[in-house]
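pipeline stage [seq->struct] | target=Polymerase nucleotidyl transferase domain-containing protein | organism=marine sediment metagenome | residues=187
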Amino acid sequence: MKEKLVEGYFVKTSDNLIFEVKGVVHPHDRIIAYVRYVPDLDSASSDSSFRKIYDLREREEYLSNGFLGYLWFSKTHGRVLQAVPHKKIVQVLNPIEHMNQIRNDKSALSIATTNLVDLLLDNTGIDRTEIGITGSQLVGVATETSDIDLVVYGESTCRKFYKRLRKKFDKVPRLERYEGELLDAHV
């Protein structure tokens, strides 16, 4: 595998499963990643529809019923982890590349995402090559009510981002803290 896959990336497999990459260190022959989207067999749609699995136990149970090759015992961790063998990966979904692609998309969600990223870039001084979009937008299953899941890459970049945003947060127009009733309504 040539591309370095890290947290925030997703991979699609030859079994039509979509996994979210976890961490930054992986075994030589596979990527530590947890199944997130699976084919939606109940969908009336003729296209390739997916459903999201939230619960970790449900994810493992899904793989236990026909996809055992994605359950792997890690000697390092001393337990079974979900992992995708390199040979099973058919598509890599890169958050930074996708962020650049959606800049041309005219959907309300893509415009909101682009505006938010530009606002954050203007107020933190990080480079646009260090921030990406992950989650449902990266996978291509977002709706107009989907949230915006951003990821910032690089330790020093993240420290700079958080430090500058913390200082400026209350002065940045249109940003509000995700706490209290707003957070409670989402959780």
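stage status: PASS
auto-comment: Residues 7 and 51 are 21 Å apart (CA to CA). The longest strand covers residues 30-39.
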